[in-house]
């Protein structure tokens, strides 16, 4: 489980196709604190650490990415130098600063508009139609692993305001119109919608 509070920005150091795709990701985490088998959310996708170490460029960890994950997320677009939001798994006693995030991506949303509002940026996303019903104004979503509050919803489109801190502490400062982003809907929204269907 995760909270959607990003703790580092990783960089793809190397990619190798060996059945599954193996990625080596440079990070600011001390390698000795990363356990083999630990879960790290990479742009919101829960991946299992298969190796870790340190070289002249600093610490790194490796993960294996299945064909299924590549087909359902934006990780298939990774190349050497790609940057992604990182979050280590929630531990008992950690502060829950965002919302409960599973690291299981529900689908891909597309950035359809970006407008600067003062120092902040309002980004409009288009969600897959099948997921749009789970997104509500003032509700939570995880986009590329970041816990965010929805400002407004119109059909399958919804808007999120990004403050300067979020743009600096995550990869959202690099976002562009046309980008496809990993979307995980709020678990509570999923169950509320299911209960409403059952009651109907």
Question: Can you give keywords for this protein?
Answer:
200 residues; mainly beta; Elongation Factor Tu (Ef-tu), domain 3; 2 domains; seven-stranded antiparallel β-sheet; six-stranded antiparallel β-barrel; 13 strands; globular
Topology readout:
Layout: E1 8-18, E2 20-26, E3 39-42, E4 45-55, E5 58-65, H1 67-72, E6 83-88, E7 107-117, E8 120-126, H2 129-132, E9 140-143, E10 146-149, E11 152-154, E12 157-162, H3 164-169, E13 180-185, H4 187-199
Antiparallel strand pairs: 1-2, 1-6, 2-5, 3-4, 3-6, 4-5, 7-8, 7-13, 8-12, 9-10, 9-13, 11-12
Describe this structure in words.
It contains 4 helices and 13 strands. The chain is mainly beta. It folds into 2 domains: 8-88, Elongation Factor Tu (Ef-tu), domain 3; 107-199, Elongation Factor Tu (Ef-tu), domain 3 (Beta Barrel). The chain has a 7-stranded antiparallel β-sheet. It is globular, with a radius of gyration of 17 Å. The mean pLDDT is 92.
């Amino acid at each position: 489980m995760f909270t959607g509070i990003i703790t580092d920005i990783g960089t793809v150091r190397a990619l190798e196709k060996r059945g599954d795709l193996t990625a080596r990701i440079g990070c600011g985490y001390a390698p000795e604190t990363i356990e083999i088998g630990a879960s790290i959310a990479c742009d919101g996708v829960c991946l299992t650490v298969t190796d870790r170490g340190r070289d002249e460029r600093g610490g790194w960890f490796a993960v294996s990415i299945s064909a299924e994950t590549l087909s359902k997320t934006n990780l298939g677009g990774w190349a050497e130098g790609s940057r992604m939001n990182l979050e280590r798994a929630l531990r008992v006693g950690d502060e829950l600063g965002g919302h409960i995030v599973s690291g299981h991506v529900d689908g891909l949303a597309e950035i359809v508009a970006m407008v600067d509002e003062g120092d902040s940026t309002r980004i409009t996303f288009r969600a897959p139609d099948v997921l749009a019903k789970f997104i509500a104004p003032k509700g939570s979503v995880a986009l590329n692993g970041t816990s965010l509050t929805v400002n407004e919803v119109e059909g399958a489109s919804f808007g999120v305001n990004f403050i300067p801190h979020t743009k600096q502490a995550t990869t959202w400062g690099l976002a562009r119109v046309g980008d496809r982003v990993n979307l995980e809907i709020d678990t509570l929204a999923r169950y509320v919608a299911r209960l409403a269907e059952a009651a109907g």
